[in-house]
Specification:
Distance between the termini: 64 Å
Number of domains: 2
Strand order of the largest sheet: 1-2
Strand content: under 5%
Number of strands: 4
Shape: elongated
Number of helices: 19
Radius of gyration: 24 Å
Structural class: mainly alpha
Order of helices and strands: HEHHHHHHHHHHEEHHHHHHHHE
């Protein structure tokens, strides 16, 4: 029984590893992450319980602990209270010791009480999945050895490594340190790859932090979310119901008057609007200023400007803020478009404003932008007026 009940070729064992690890990552991204932590979709009880059982076998993770830790990560993102922020703890710590960070936070009863609400609390959860969380992975080891013999030990080891490395390490670590950003949300999240078939769409981390309650993590047409593909398949079978997906920015060509529908559309699509503002206003003005730079020193200073001009203030350190002030002092056009960006953001961040006050604030912003003398700003304002829900 050296090779168990089902001896396979090398490629056969590789196929088994790919299948079982994909089921595990699907369980994490669909059940733990999108369904339990963010309530972005509902799952049929059969599917939900299958994922719970599979995660018990392959990870030993407890639903309440995982959901609570992840919700706290969003609530305290990039602060010292964040359970796994590379910005606060360092990339190497989160990348290589992510599992230890999870275990440390999992025993914090305050975290579980405050952030673990609404997760399963039935007999199986209390008496099996939570009480005997380590038993599942032991059972999985025995099953693998019986089915595949000695190669089953390697398969089991790879199963056990998959989530600690790719989810706890790569996504939580690199996903807040390296990659591209579609949206300038208030944390350092980044999209690691536009297509990460092996981690279920979790690589689109900046998209997720921008729209955390969305069941779909891809936003651009060229991005691919494997988890969303699984959700769509489950939906077709009547086993899943997505609640929300990222909003789509729309414009009505004939629309010019700013009304409450305009305000709602602007607030809903604010991150996309900021992205358009960067592309259509800030970058053209920055490009023109770089061409007009009088010396290399001025050009190099402006070359650093893109990130500083668009990044949330809480993500810019003291050195960066000093550099930004220099840039704005030396360039009136950049200072102008930067201040307009700040004013626009301030409007939708004032949650105490009435509908009438919001309409008036956006109207005033548009009037001033159109009278600013900057063509890029004027064109953006006219486009903003056409924003529709």
């Amino acid at each position: 029984m050296l090779f168990g009940l089902f001896p396979l070729s090398f490629l056969g064992y590789v196929g088994v590893v790919l299948v079982v690890t994909q089921i595990t990552i699907a369980a994490v991204t669909i059940y733990l992450h999108r369904c339990q932590a963010h309530r972005a979709l509902t799952l049929h009880p059969i599917v939900s319980h299958f994922f719970r059982f599979w995660l018990w076998l392959t990870t030993g993770m407890v639903t309440k602990e995982w959901a609570a830790i992840h919700r706290k990560h969003h609530a305290k993102c990039e602060t010292i209270e964040d359970p796994h922020s590379p910005q606060a703890l360092g990339l190497n710590t989160v990348m290589w010791y992510g599992t230890e960070l999870y275990r440390k936070e999992a025993v914090n009863q305050e975290t579980l009480t405050r952030y673990g609400h609404g997760t399963p609390d039935d007999w199986m959860e209390r008496h099996v999945y939570t009480k005997h969380s380590a038993m599942g992975v032991t059972l999985m080891f025995i099953i693998n050895v019986i089915l595949f013999g000695l190669p089953g030990i390697t398969i089991w080891a790879l199963q056990m490594m998959w989530i600690p490395f790719f989810a706890a390490g790569l996504v939580n670590g690199v996903g807040h340190y390296w990659g591209y950003r579609n949206f300038e949300c208030r944390d350092a999240s980044r999209n690691i790859f536009p297509w990460g078939f092996w981690i279920g769409g979790e690589e689109l981390h900046n998209n997720h932090h921008t729209y955390p309650t969305s069941a779909k993590l891809s936003v651009k047409w060229w991005e691919f979310d494997m988890g969303w593909m699984y959700i769509r398949l489950l939906s077709l079978l009547g086993l899943a119901t997505p609640k929300k997906i990222p909003p789509r920015l729309q414009h009505v060509k004939e629309k010019a008057a700013i009304d409450i529908e305009t305000v709602k559309a602007i607030i809903t699509n604010r991150f996309q609007i900021l992205a358009h503002y960067t592309k259509d206003v800030m970058l053209p003005v920055l490009s023109r200023e770089k061409k007009l730079a009088k010396n290399k020193e001025s050009w190099h200073l402006l070359d650093k400007a893109k990130k500083l001009l668009t990044r949330s203030e809480n993500l810019v350190d003291a050195k960066g803020k000093h550099c930004l002030n220099q840039i704005l002092e030396n360039s009136h056009p950049l200072d102008q478009v930067y201040q307009y960006r700040q004013k626009l953001m301030a409007i939708w961040e004032k949650t105490t404003l009435t509908q009438k006050e919001l309409i008036e604030a956006i109207q005033q912003w548009c009037h001033q932008a159109e009278a600013s003398g900057l063509e890029a700003l004027r064109a953006f304002s006219l486009q903003l007026r056409r924003t529709a829900a």
